[in-house]
Amino acid sequence: MNTPVPDYLADLLRNCKTAHGGELADYIPELASADPNKLAVALITLDGLLYSVGDDDYEFSIQSISKAFTYAYVVEKLRLEAVMQKVGVEPSGEAFNEISLDQTDDRIKPKNPMINSGAITVHSLIPKAENDCRAETVRQFFSQLAGRELSFDLAIFQSEKETAFRNLSIGYSLRNFNILESDPVEIVESYLKQCSINVTVKDLVNMMSVLVNDGILPRTGERIFSHKTVRQVLTVMTTCGMYNAAGDWLANVGIPAKSGVSGGIIGVLPGQVGLAVFSPKLDRFGNSVRGIDIMQQMSRDMGLHLLEGVPSSRVIVNDHDVEQIRPGLKVYKLHGVLQFTDAERLLRKLQDEEQDGGTIILDLSHISLVNDVGRRMLLDGIDRLRADGHNVALVDPENIVPHAKTPSDFEPHVYQDLEDIAK
Amino acid sequence: MNTPVPDYLADLLRNCKTAHGGELADYIPELASADPNKLAVALITLDGLLYSVGDDDYEFSIQSISKAFTYAYVVEKLRLEAVMQKVGVEPSGEAFNEISLDQTDDRIKPKNPMINSGAITVHSLIPKAENDCRAETVRQFFSQLAGRELSFDLAIFQSEKETAFRNLSIGYSLRNFNILESDPVEIVESYLKQCSINVTVKDLVNMMSVLVNDGILPRTGERIFSHKTVRQVLTVMTTCGMYNAAGDWLANVGIPAKSGVSGGIIGVLPGQVGLAVFSPKLDRFGNSVRGIDIMQQMSRDMGLHLLEGVPSSRVIVNDHDVEQIRPGLKVYKLHGVLQFTDAERLLRKLQDEEQDGGTIILDLSHISLVNDVGRRMLLDGIDRLRADGHNVALVDPENIVPHAKTPSDFEPHVYQDLEDIAK
Amino acid sequence: MNTPVPDYLADLLRNCKTAHGGELADYIPELASADPNKLAVALITLDGLLYSVGDDDYEFSIQSISKAFTYAYVVEKLRLEAVMQKVGVEPSGEAFNEISLDQTDDRIKPKNPMINSGAITVHSLIPKAENDCRAETVRQFFSQLAGRELSFDLAIFQSEKETAFRNLSIGYSLRNFNILESDPVEIVESYLKQCSINVTVKDLVNMMSVLVNDGILPRTGERIFSHKTVRQVLTVMTTCGMYNAAGDWLANVGIPAKSGVSGGIIGVLPGQVGLAVFSPKLDRFGNSVRGIDIMQQMSRDMGLHLLEGVPSSRVIVNDHDVEQIRPGLKVYKLHGVLQFTDAERLLRKLQDEEQDGGTIILDLSHISLVNDVGRRMLLDGIDRLRADGHNVALVDPENIVPHAKTPSDFEPHVYQDLEDIAK
Amino acid sequence: MNTPVPDYLADLLRNCKTAHGGELADYIPELASADPNKLAVALITLDGLLYSVGDDDYEFSIQSISKAFTYAYVVEKLRLEAVMQKVGVEPSGEAFNEISLDQTDDRIKPKNPMINSGAITVHSLIPKAENDCRAETVRQFFSQLAGRELSFDLAIFQSEKETAFRNLSIGYSLRNFNILESDPVEIVESYLKQCSINVTVKDLVNMMSVLVNDGILPRTGERIFSHKTVRQVLTVMTTCGMYNAAGDWLANVGIPAKSGVSGGIIGVLPGQVGLAVFSPKLDRFGNSVRGIDIMQQMSRDMGLHLLEGVPSSRVIVNDHDVEQIRPGLKVYKLHGVLQFTDAERLLRKLQDEEQDGGTIILDLSHISLVNDVGRRMLLDGIDRLRADGHNVALVDPENIVPHAKTPSDFEPHVYQDLEDIAK
């Protein structure tokens, strides 16, 4: 058998209803002459498996989608606080407010890194490498994420440079407020070069896999971003990624996203999937018409929505999973995820244990995930059971509660297997 | 033993660092004379267990927190589209933009239901009941959610009414644009009465439990809101709940929230918990200083953040959970949650099954949660296994894949227990 | 013979080119049903002679034109500084800025008295008379200026009151900032009653004659406004009288003006004429289309433009008007106006007088106007002539340099007639 | 004797009350190191006589004052309509609105030529001369007006150029909207060079004399600007000349003006005087503190205010100036100015003439000024007298009613002198 995902994606393209709406970006000839019929979708799983359909090898300039990755890069390289001094995280509203007084710290700065003023500022924060070229630093970094050598589209870059009046206006305004600290022409041109990097939808989901997987590139296992950086990037994608309609996008699609004027849209659901769509015709806000349509469809079909609810296990432990092996020896076979909600429910169940001095074994071998608070509550519960006079042991073959040591400094016995206990 | 949650909450109050910051709201004497030392926290779990500490029986007027619940009520009673015609879902920015042209549909309307213009409009949409009083409808509804009879604080209501100049100005402006369709004085006064309903933090988390639990009131099992309504309310709480700093709140706390001028803040993490804090001293944006501090602390300590990542099971099926009971009979013991990511991984594993015509039993008895896409993918996978020549049966004692019928119209055999199969 | 003015005005109406443009105001039925063909012009001279043509006895509600006169009334009754605390004098720009922080004194207040927020505030400043009704005070005052008993149009007033949502919104907003200090509903309704006073174009120019004539009502000779009040009112008419295009109006018409939604426009050129036009069809800014057309035409035809230049006499004294009657006795026959420019030129001429101790007679009998600085410079010049050893005498039959006393405390001899001197 | 003007000006400097307020402009070192004690005033009369006191030979960079003269130059060289397509004439309000949609013609353009965006655009409209340098064209033009060779302050120019971030931002924004049609860097730098031209207060009033005198340079008699150009420039100086407070300035000073950041202010009262003040310390809006103080003082002392009222002659003809020389021959000795108001009064007087067929002589030899409408009304009146059966003759030695020909094609007899008639 084959998984149905490729079939699903192919169906999605076939049924894409708004096939004829929108207009090509026309401010430079290279975009105006794009093939309006190109259409591609790619999807990457938490563990890095990539599915793609349509024109998935077609290269297009990354444009504003680059903003999300460059922001992540800069937040990771500098302290977040330093970046926040320069660029905010608030939705932008009107264009003329692009640079405005921030209400939380009374500093003049771009509202967020997803509008041009913010993205240019973010670009200026890229530490200059030996090559002395920020755009090249970006290209190398994007190539690392994508897993292949990406290149600049020099024709696009040249055209953008010749008509970059608005970005240069923004650049000089940023320089005027000392938000940019060196020549704005150099920075704006380097930023435009960043936007001209060519990618396919497959490249984009490969790049996104690091955001899906909490900062670790699944292909290599390498940690690229800290947890804090990932959360920060996802935050700005949530509130500022789609032009002019943060609330509408969150209500209807609910996937942290970013679009680009060449027709790409990316979406990330942390811990689940990364999505990329490409279709060059744009709505009046500059978002790909078919791209939005497909993202909405996938959100609906696949239950991918930030506010769907973190799917708590209905039960961390079923009644029939508590086994009284013999008098004085009881086993709790836990399964599912162990985070706050679940840990709270487990401890609630353990409250009913009589203070009979017996042994309680917590079998963690079917726990699929545990987070920090889940671990801490589990250990705290063990302490409390001991205080009530119980012996407590863990079965933890995959070491999901590493170095188990409870708050009161007690180390429970840890077995590899329930069988061990019998011995 | 006892669960550590009450101790944790008590610690939280004790350590609340910003105990002395902020100022009491002073626009009416009733708020200006509040006891600044009152402090309370409550927490409710997905299944409706309530924890609370501090002044948890202290009553205060619900104020703007009511906006979230009234919005939910109106979205549920009317079609969402009808409500969207009147009130948007976008972050608001500056005050003077309270009523402005919406960019997505070119209508003049309040930006969202969490600012006063939006909340007054939402109040006007409450269908008039027999009692002919919208505020009374609200009071009865809030009482139903809270599980006890709530009452109006008439002294507060009277004071608000006497100084309601700004709200009356907004009301007449809404009437001018025909967003309100009847006398704005009556609507504004009824809205103020809604804001004067007295609650405790325990009432608040009881009310929120319905949002935590996807629209079903855990205390009664009654469905109050549809899934769509809950998602809509959580969306506006995410982007518009905390004044003036949607991005900052999402980055730092990440809990859909709403604050009120009397000093309360509520926060909801769908599928996990509901939180309420009360402390009357406010920062310059009108949010409770200690309330924000405690919410941040809980988000950090308890791993409660919308963008933490939906905790996918690391494995829906471990290798040692696939058991070849005998030639031609294999059992997959699934556990954890079954949504898109997990289903995709399961089906990927099933791809490796040889086309040997044997029987495959999928044991769902340890699956803790399955969502729609998970169910559909599972059934689709069964179909594909059959197409490959396998017999497929399910063990589904809790009927989590109800009326299992695959796309190709095949009903797999469903057992109550693995033991049944042996027979 | 007859003066050509009536013929000119009649021609103006006949040739009015834009006869068919514009739309009737339609927010209340009384205005929507106005006769669109009504057309009237009136003109009043500095000394109060009234010319009028067309439907000059047709009554219409004064509407916003009342703002100019009520402002004058309030500025006269209160100290200007007190009024300036409440309402500014700056052009308004966008509607949402109606109430905004004033840059010069950092107070929140309406930008000027010609927009509704300012006019409502101005109305609230009318001292309450015995009749306890500000609108009645206004009606009596307007009647005094118009020279006949004016009346309210109660049907218009009633309609306005029923749909006054925007004004009530403004009123409550003003009350919120304590710019209004009592019930806004009462003030707004009284303001609407002020706007409903019925006038004809003849009434309007009679009312304006007091502004043309520097505060003195020509019909009665009574001083109604101080010089300072008149200048203040003309200032706001210049910068804020015509909606949304202060600069455009000043460039093209150059007459301090005010328009009303019923179709009237008034224009004042201080020291020269007052104009009123009526035609009910409006452009998109709410100004009478034919009214603007006629005002432009009159400005052009009649050389009426604020920036035409104050027409200084080419010469206060011609060479052939200096007569050496006999040795030691010289007469300067002055004519024209005597203000700074002219006085400077006269004194410059007197510089050339030899210090021969002779008598110099300044004949002022043909001086048509002298202002304060002209008088002071003349007296200063006399002093200087005396210091040079001259005797100086004045011929001043109309006493235009009253109580002539020079800075050094010398009183020149004053004759009624040049003939007197001969004696 | 001497005229009191120099003494008056000297007193003015001595009494300047706010001697210590304000701060030097500090954005470039050249301005920050200006001598704060420099103080100068100059005044020029309609006929070009110059008075000056204080540091009247001290040179400073003209800065924004240049905007008024460059605007006049461009309006004169191009059609006004062409300039209005590019730059409006409305007061600006907030800075971020510098470039905004114009309400009258729905074009995006700078609000007026006195803000930087407008002034840069105006500079770009200067036709390029042989020297291919707009700044040099400006320097030559300013030198022509000032009557001496002016020079650039290259140190100031260099400093401005190095920190011109805001102007470059504006320039690129203008380029983006195609308001600038070539390289903004070149235009902005040339504009900065225009601002660096060194002038003294004496230069400034010499330059202004052409605006005082309706476009004719008094020193040479050459017409530099049309009447229409002068009126246009004075309009924008009235509504936009002083930063941020058009209404306040018009109310309190009432002189069309322009200030510069180096500390100069100019003011023009058409037909009367030109004023220039220099003192480098600025208020928070960038206007010279002592400059404003002195301008206010002069407006008050010298009766110089646009809204003072155009001083109409009280009488164009006194009763004792109508002489019945013999039966059938009557002489009207007119004096003063002859514009609409006066002409209307004269014709009103002539209405009383009996239809006796006698000769009426209008003696214009003491008329000091006649404008177009005055002339037309006079000729129209002559026609009407003839129609009533009178013979009419003029005494017009200075030919102020040139080529007198009445509407009905009749040429009245014109004498050089009353004596001629006797003959």
From TrEMBL, chains A, B, C, D:
Keyword Repressor tagged: no
SUPFAM superfamilies: beta-lactamase/transpeptidase-like, SpoIIaa-like
Reactions this protein catalyses: L-glutamine + H2O = L-glutamate + NH4(+)
Keywords of this entry: Acetylation, Hydrolase
GO terms, molecular function: glutaminase activity
Statement: the UniProt record of this protein carries the keyword Hydrolase: yes
GO BP annotations listed: glutamate biosynthetic process; L-glutamine catabolic process
Enzyme class: hydrolase
Lineage top rank: taxon: Bacteria
Summary of subunit composition and partner proteins: Homotetramer.
Protein's recorded name: Glutaminase
Gene that this polypeptide is encoded by: glsA
